[in-house]
Amino acid sequence: MGKKLLAMDLDGTILDSDGVLHEESMRALNMLRAHGHVVSYATGRREYDMVNFQYLYDCTDYVILNTGSIIEHRPSKERFYEKFVDPQTTRRLINVCNANGWQLYVVIAEGFCLNIMTDGVEEYIGRTGVEPIMYRTADDLPLDRIEGFMTARDSDEILAYIRENDLPLDHFNSEPGCFDLTPRGISKWNGICILADHLNIPIEDIVTMGNWLNDMEMVKGAGIGIAVADAAQELKDAADYVTQRDHDHDPLLDVCRDIFNLNAEQKVAGDKHDQV
Questions:
Q1: At CA 54, angle to CA 26 and CA 177, rounded to 5?
Q2: According to CATH, where is 3.40.50.1000 located in the chain?
Q3: Fold of 87-183
Q4: Which string of b and e fits 172-200 if b means at least 16 CB within 10 Å?
Q5: Model confidence at 170: pLDDT above 80
Q6: Per-residue pLDDT tens over the stretch 86-102
Q7: Phi, psi of 11 (to 5 degrees)
Q8: Of 45, 67, 115, 254, which sees the most CB atoms within 10 A?
Q9: Looking at the predicted structure, is the pLDDT value of residue 177 above 90?
């Protein structure tokens, strides 16, 4: 089998419900790499989301972060692609959110910035381990380094404003009730195509894997698009292959066996997964 690029979503796809990548899945990824394939994550996570999950980098060649606006070669930590929101758009969006009392998360490499604290933010802090940087105006932020935005509480109002005023931003439903906002033209699939072009890998040799609606474009665009067993039904309907295992039970083992013709399975005492 020739070299393929396997690009995978993380949360709800190859990570379990506790956000853990099992040792079985880590071995599967490293087996694929040993056979000459290229492994990449394609995630809506930002750089700060990965700080407490450095072990995930032990079994990947590349990482596509922030829904495609950042691409990094992990062994060298070289960031060979990045796209920021233009400062004028950032200033305009922040001004209207502040004027209307709309909550807006602003993403920078160091963490996330926030204009309004709510109870839901506390849950996000607990999940990421990152405290927000509070801002009052756009001038409190590094306007030339804004990677994107997130919305939750006031998504409907913010997305309506973006559409009505044709701001150069795209939005993706990253999880129920939440949206990621990226510079126009940015997406997981766009990032995967940039990476594949960088590696001289044709589209027909791209394998993608996801679970949610923000993975739809990459699942439909790839040579082989995969949905995990417990993915959104719309994604499973669009996929070329649906795993037998759900995201809590190492669906990568199905992918190795059925797509790459490799046996990555190992019996674990008591049928329990070892975790890192």
A1: 90
A2: 5-82+186-271
A3: 3.30.1240
A4: bebeeebbbbbbeebbbbbbbbbbbeeee
A5: yes
A6: 999 999 999 999 999 99
A7: -65, 125
A8: 67
A9: no
Mapping DSSP onto H, E and C, the string for 14-40 reads CECCCCCCEHHHHHHHHHHHHCCCEEE
**Which residue ranges does the chain devote to CATH 3.30.1240.10?**
87-183
pLDDT for residue 121: 81
Tokens of 93: 């969006």
CA distance 141 to 192: 29
CA distance 129 to 133: 13
Please tell me the number of Cα atoms within 13 Å of 80 on its side-chain side.
Answer: 16
Q: Which two tokens stand for residue 182?
A: 């990226």
In this structure, what are the phi and psi dihedrals at residue 137, rounded to the nearest 5 degrees?
-135, 170
- Given strand 105-108, what is the order of strands in its sheet? 133-134, 111-114, 105-108, 148-151, 178-183, 169-175
Please state the pTM of the whole predicted model. 0.86
Task: Encode pLDDT of 186-238 as tens digits.
Answer: 999 999 999 999 999 999 999 999 999 999 999 999 999 999 999 999 999 99
Q: Which CATH class is domain 5-82+186-271?
A: alpha beta
* DSSP code, position 243: -
What integer pLDDT is reported at residue 266 of this predicted model?
A: 60
